[in-house]
Q: What sequence folds into this?
């Protein structure tokens, strides 16, 4: 260096060195640190691109329907019509890309259906639930129920087929000899579409009064004066008819 | 060249250089401006609606989310999770994540006043506290209103995990970066539903564009009485709940 630039004085050389270092740092920042580290907008754009590029694992119901038309048509009118295929069969994007090699599993044992249909006190009222211990033990669910169009295997004849809890409560109560239909008017359609057609409940005080008013001729029932007892309320708003209190 | 001429020429040279430079800047900026303006009108704003009285607590959403987003299987890493609320007759409230329910105390049914499931996930707040606190700008809101985490930028300081009032974030144990629900961003931008919405057997989760009148979410918002979690924090969540119980925190 000194041989090449002998005429330059020492202090100028030092200044040149400082400038060279500055230049080096600037070039380093410019070309070696990627732009996404310097510019927030560029960083966001590249992060979004990275996020978009991630692998999809659940293909979606419409992808299944293109090949499995039979099952799709069977399912679309049943109670499971809103269920995605992958809810039970698991992620199937791999299957759509390579249908012969990758096969999504079909849960056929007794463990799977109770994930949704086992009785749980926190589940919403009306959701079909069973007690997995008492409900046809050891039988796989699919021997009686077609999972793509689930129905009770036969139309239940008696109320207790579905409403066993009420039946068992009633059996221990003074109302044991009353039939469900004595108090509930049950349309025939209730057995086919239990959710949309519902049985009635007594709407008047006089209905219970047929046995429990002072004018009633039925023997050995507790009697009250309908005019003064219970004001405006229908009897079942205070007394539970499936297990009425006994004095 | 005299002194006056020299100064004039130097000055005009500098000015013209500056003008050239700013012209380049302007040329760069104009298409960007146009892009942003188009984006404002065309981009959807995503949201989710959750119907509490439809959730059966089956946990399919949690499982699907873990598969789709490579969330570790251990029951303390969640992008979405389902809480079981049990309100007892004596007024006490028990909240239990259904994924680690085994071994937890079971309340006898006769002590239960009411009980229900509440699915939870990142609320994709319009005023996200997590974005405010991030020291390196690794988490941000996209134009669609989804809050994303840039895992290349995140330094794993856990500040955002502390800041989230909904407990929606966790530190990914292998990546060592913050992770959370992003509405399955890679799915929704291809027109698919988020994995949890896709597999929900009872349609307890509704997903859609808040701006489009045709989206199922707008119908959901029209038909239900809605509530968001912790509205007093003014985070303006994009996840709204129908039939939410007052005990839910």
A:
């Amino acid at each position: 260096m000194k041989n090449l630039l002998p005429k330059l004085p020492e202090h100028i050389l030092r200044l040149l060195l400082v400038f060279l270092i500055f230049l080096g740092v600037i070039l380093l920042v410019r070309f070696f640190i990627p732009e996404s580290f310097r510019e927030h907008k560029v960083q966001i754009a590249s992060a979004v691109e990275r996020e978009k590029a991630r692998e999809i694992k659940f293909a979606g119901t419409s992808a299944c329907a293109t090949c499995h038309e039979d099952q799709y048509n069977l399912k679309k009118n049943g109670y499971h019509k809103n269920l995605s295929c992958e809810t039970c069969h698991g992620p199937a994007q791999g299957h759509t890309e390579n249908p012969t090699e990758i096969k999504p599993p079909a849960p056929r044992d007794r463990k799977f259906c109770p994930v949704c249909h086992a009785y749980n006190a926190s589940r919403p009222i009306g959701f079909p639930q069973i007690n997995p211990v008492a409900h046809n033990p050891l039988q796989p669910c699919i021997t009686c129920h077609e999972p793509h169009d689930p129905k009770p295997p036969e139309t239940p004849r008696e109320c207790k087929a579905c409403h066993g809890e009420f039946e068992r409560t009633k059996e221990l109560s003074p109302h044991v000899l009353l039939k469900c239909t004595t108090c509930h008017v049950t349309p025939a359609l209730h057995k086919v579409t239990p959710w949309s057609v519902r049985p009635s409940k007594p709407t008047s005080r006089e209905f219970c009064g047929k046995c429990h008013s002072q004018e009633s001729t039925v023997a050995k029932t507790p009697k009250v004066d309908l005019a003064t007892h219970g004001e405006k309320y229908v009897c079942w708003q205070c007394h539970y008819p499936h297990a009425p209190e006994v004095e | 060249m005299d002194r006056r001429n020299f100064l004039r020429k130097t000055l005009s040279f500098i000015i013209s250089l500056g003008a050239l430079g700013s012209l380049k800047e302007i040329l760069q900026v104009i298409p960007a401006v146009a892009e942003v303006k188009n984006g404002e009108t065309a981009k959807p704003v995503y949201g989710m609606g959750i119907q509490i009285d439809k959730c059966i607590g089956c946990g399919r959403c949690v499982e699907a989310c873990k598969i789709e987003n490579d969330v570790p299987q251990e029951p303390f890493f969640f992008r979405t999770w389902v809480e079981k609320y049990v309100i007892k007759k004596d007024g006490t409230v028990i909240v239990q994540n259904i994924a680690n329910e085994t071994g937890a105390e079971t309340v006898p049914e006769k002590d239960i006043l009411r009980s229900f499931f509440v699915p939870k996930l990142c609320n994709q707040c319009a005023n996200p506290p997590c974005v405010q606190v991030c020291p390196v700008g690794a988490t941000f809101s996209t134009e669609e209103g989804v809050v994303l985490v840039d895992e290349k930028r995140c330094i794993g300081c856990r500040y955002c995990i502390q800041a989230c009032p909904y407990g929606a974030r966790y530190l990914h144990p292998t990546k060592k970066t913050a992770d959370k629900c992003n509405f399955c961003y890679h799915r929704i931008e291809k027109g698919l539903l988020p994995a949890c919405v896709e597999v929900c057997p009872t349609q307890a989760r509704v997903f859609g564009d808040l701006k489009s009148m045709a989206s199922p979410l707008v119908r959901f918002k029209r038909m239900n009485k809605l509530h968001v979690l912790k509205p007093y924090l003014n985070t303006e969540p994009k996840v709204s709940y129908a039939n939410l119980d007052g005990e839910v925190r």
